[in-house]
Amino acid sequence: MEKVTMKSVDIFAGAGGLTLGIYRAGFQHQLAVEWNDRACQTLLQNKHDLFGEQMAVARCDVALFDFSSITDDIALLAGGPPCQPFSNGGLHRSFQDKRDMFPQFIRAVRSLKPQAFLVENVKGLLRKSFAEYFQYLIWQLTYPEIPIRPSEHWNEHALRLKQYDRKGLQDGLFYNVTFRLLNAADYGVPQRRDRVFIIGIRSDLKQEWSFPQPTHSQEALLYSQWVTREYWEQFSLSPPEIPPKVSQQRKLQSRLFPPDRVAAAQQHRQRWLTVRDAIDNLPDPRQEEAKDIGNHNFIPGARQYPGHTGSPLDEPAKTLKAGVHGVPGGENMMRLTDGTVRYFTVREAARLQTFPDSYRFPVAWTEAMHQLGNAVPVTLSEILAKRIKITLSYARDISSPEDPR
C-alpha cells in the first residue's frame, strides 16, 4: 500500500495534548489554532522539537478564522471546543452560553471537508438536560452542508435535519458519526478522566469506525495489589494493610474477585496505572536534585478539607481540572502515604496527562495547571488518531474533497 501523507488541522488546540497525540500517530499538522496567548506560548515553545516546522500556530479566535485559506486536502480535523457550557462545574447553559464553539467546529468541517474529524468534550455533554441539543450537534456534524438559516432557531434547524436524516438522503457532503464516553485510565493514562469523543468519517470513504477496546482495567489493578501483591513488589514496598473498603469483603478472592472479574483482569493483562507509576522516578520537588528537572518546582500551601483530599498515590489520579476561579485544590494535589498532601508540580501533572518530559510549559504554575487541566491526555489522543489513520488508510475509494460522493 502506497504511503500517503495525511495532513491535519487542530482547532481549540490549547497546550497541545490532542495536537501531540495526533502528530505521534503519523499525521502532519498544517495548523493549530488557539486564541489564548499563553497557550500559544506553550505550543510555540514545543513546536520545533515535537511538532515539526510545517505546523503553523495561529493566535486567533476560531470564530474569526477564514478556513477557506487552507487549500490542502485535510485528512483529519480535530478539536476540543470549550467545555464550560457543558461542564459539571459550569452554569450548564449549553447553546445559550456564548462560549459554545461547536458551531465553529461545524463551520470548519463544512469548509475543509476533512476525511475525518475528532471532537473531545466533557462528560456533562451527555447530561439528560442537554440530550436534545446533543442530538442536534450530531445531526449538524452528520450533515454540515445544511447550515442554520438566518434568524432560524436551533430547534427549527434540528427539525429540518431530523427530517433529512429520516429520508436517508445521501447527496453532497455527509459523515458517519459515532460517539462514546471514554475513561482515560482504561487506555493506560494514570488518571481517571471521563471524556466524550465524537468521531466522523466522510461517507464517500465507505469506512466503518469502531472505538478501540480498553487495554487497562481497575480489576487488574486491584488483583495486582490485593491478591498477587505484585504491585507492591514492583516498587520494592511492603504491602500495606488491606484498606477498609477491601477488608470489609469477607472473602477477598470470591467476593471482590468473582470468577468473571478474575477473568477480566487476566484478559486485559494490564492494570490501571497509578500516580506512583507516573512519578516514581521523579525526586521529591523539595530535594536539591529536583532543580535540574524542568517544571518540577515545589509549590507550598496545599491543604486538605472535606471533599478536597488529593489523589492517593496508589490509584489513578483524580481528573485534573482547569477550574473557573483558579485551581481547585483536591484535584491538583497528591495524598502521600502518611496522610499529608502537597500540590502536584507541573512536571508531575504533565506526566498524569502523559506529556513527555521534554514538553515545556513556559508559564507560571497556575497557568500551566490550567492548561494541563484542559488538555487531552497525549496517550489517549494518539490511540484514537492511530485508529483513525488506519481507517483512512484502508478507504476503498477516496474521492476528491471538492466532490465527495
Task: Spell out the key features of this protein.
three-stranded mixed β-sheet; 10 strands; 32% helix; alpha/beta; seven-stranded mixed β-sheet; disordered C terminus; globular; 405 residues; Rossmann fold
pLDDT averaged over residues = 88
Q: Which percent bin holds the helix content?
A: 25-40%
Uncertain regions: pLDDT < 50 for 5+ in a row? Answer: 87-97, 397-405
Strand content: 5-15%
Overall body shape: globular
Top CATH class of the domain at 7-214 and 374-393: Alpha Beta
CATH architecture of the domain at 7-214 and 374-393: 3-Layer(aba) Sandwich
- Give the CA-CA distance, first to last residue: 23 Å
Per CATH, the superfamily of the domain at 7-214 and 374-393 is: Vaccinia Virus protein VP39
Radius of gyration (CA) equals 22 Å
E-strand count = 10
How do the strands line up in the largest sheet? 3-2-1-4-5-7-6
Structure description:
- The chain has 405 residues and is of the alpha/beta class.
- Among the domains are: 7-214 and 374-393, Vaccinia Virus protein VP39 (Rossmann fold); 217-271, no CATH class.
- The protein is built from 14 helices and ten strands.
- The chain has helices at 17-24, 37-51, 102-112, 131-142, 154-167, 218-226, 230-234, 244-247, 252-256, 259-268, 275-279, 346-352, 365-374, 378-393; strands spanning 7-11, 28-34, 56-59, 74-79, 116-122, 175-183, 194-202, 311-312, 333-335, 341-343.
- Helix 1 (17-24) crosses helix 14 (378-393), helix 4 packs across helix 5 and helix 6 crosses helix 10.
